[in-house]
Amino acid sequence: MVKKMIDFTEEQLERYSRHILLADVGVEGQIRLSSARVLIIGAGGLGAPVALYLAAAGVGTIGIVDNDIVEVSNLQRQVCHFHNNIGKAKVESAREKMKAINPDITVIPLEKYLVADNIREIIRDYDFVVEGSDNFPTKFLVNDACVMESIPFSIGGILRFDGQAMTIVPGESACYRCAFRNPPPPDAVPSCSEAGVLGAIAGMLGTIQAAETLKFITGAGSLLTDTLLSFDAKNMDFHKVRLQRQDDCAICGKEPSIRTLVDYEQTTCGI
Question: CB within 8 A of 101, min separation 6: which ones?
Answer without folding.
Answer: 52, 55, 56
